[in-house]
Structures are given as C-alpha cells and as structure tokens.
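Lecture notes, continued. The same structure-token format from the folding unit now serves as the input rather than the output. Read the line below as a description of shape only.
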C-alpha cells in the first residue's frame, strides 16, 4: 500500500476506507493502528461493532502484532456500545453530542493516529445522521490526527458525503468470479499524492492484508 501511495498516507489527514463486509477494511485499519502504536505514536481506536476482546480474537490469526499493540499505553480503545466508554468521553465536554466529544478527545490527547469504525455508529446516537456525519467529518479534518474512517458500502459507484469530504478514499472489493473470490484495493482519491485508480490484487496472509501493486486486476484475472 505504501508503494501505491508514494510512501504512505499523508499525515494529519482524514481517509475513508469503504467496501462490503469481509473485504478487509477492519484488518487494514488494525494494521494501520498497530504500526502507529509500534512507533510510539499516540493512537485511538473507536468502534461500536466489537469489544476489545472480540477484535483481538479476530486479528489473532495474523502475526502483525495487534494484540501486543493493544497492550501498549499509547493505544486507547473505545467501544461505544459500552456505557463506561461513552461516560469516559464526558470529560471532553457535554455540548454538541458524541461527535464533538470524540474530536475534543483527539485534540486533548494530541493523538497521532485514529481509527473510527464505522460511520454507521452515528446512526445510533443522533436524529439526523447525514447532517451529523458532515459535521463530524468537518470537525475531524480540523484536528492534526491522521484518521482512518471506515464506511460500509456494497455499491462502489454509490458515493456518499464522506467520500466527497475526505482527503482520500480507498475502496476494498471482493466479488465472486469463475475462479473463486477476487479481492482488490482501489485508491479513488488521494489529495497531494500522485495515484492511479486501477484495482490492485490483495490477499489475506499470515502477515495481514497484503497488497500486490504490480498485479493489476485486469492483468491477473482478465
């Protein structure tokens, strides 16, 4: 992925990771946050899909060090299905709802990297998810944190507000062909970085999600 991005994700920007279930979004996000924790950066992982134990178990089949990273003091995990986690955010203010408290936390802790999984979490806490998401993303972009925002989608042509607002957009694909399941990654947008938008082959390996930049989809599966 670093090769496709001419060195990696630019710092201090917000990136939307989209794709259908099982396409590799959470694995990619976990590798991203693990790399940051390993470099002693301040990291935060916000989710409402899984508990910490569940996520560690999900990543246990890989050897990129997620469980070790989760034990480090510089990686904070927040599962917003937990009342205790939501209550812990009140120290960052009570006005403006959850979205403002999350961004205030990133600023207060001077967070270097954050994962927010996923945009669907807002639907459980606000009356108008579309307006709330626009405001949330706008506030997130004002922080100095490099943010991976996971967005569930099954139609790669159905762009949503978060895709237009983000500094970068990466799609993960998985679809059945005659030879079995095909997996690919596609960089749709990346401000400030030269890219192409061809789909590249990806595979789940022992080391995590691996990108093969030399294997364009049409060359591999055409």
């Amino acid at each position: 992925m670093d090769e496709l991005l001419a060195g990696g994700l630019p710092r201090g920007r917000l990136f939307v990771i989209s794709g259908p279930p099982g396409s590799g979004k959470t694995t990619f996000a976990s590798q991203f946050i693990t790399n940051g924790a390993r470099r002693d950066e301040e990291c935060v992982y916000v989710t409402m899909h899984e508990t910490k134990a569940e996520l560690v178990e999900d990543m246990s089949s890989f050897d990129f060090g997620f469980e070790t990273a989760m034990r480090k003091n510089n990686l904070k995990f927040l599962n917003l299905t937990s009342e205790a986690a939501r209550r812990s955010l009140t120290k960052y203010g009570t006005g403006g709802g959850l979205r403002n408290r999350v961004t205030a936390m990133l600023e207060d802790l001077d967070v270097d990297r954050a994962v927010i999984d996923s945009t669907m979490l807002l639907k459980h806490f606000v009356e108008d998810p579309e307006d709330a998401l626009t405001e949330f993303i706008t506030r997130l972009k004002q922080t100095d944190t490099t943010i991976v925002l996971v967005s569930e989608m099954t139609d790669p042509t159905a762009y949503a507000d978060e895709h237009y607002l983000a500094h970068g957009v990466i799609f993960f694909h998985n679809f059945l062909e005659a030879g079995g399941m095909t997996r690919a990654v596609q960089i749709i947008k990346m401000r400030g970085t030269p890219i192409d938008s061809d789909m590249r082959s990806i595979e789940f390996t022992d080391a995590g999600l691996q990108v093969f930049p030399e294997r364009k989809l049409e060359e591999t599966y055409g």
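Point for the exam: The CA atoms of residues 63 and 207 lie 5 Å apart.
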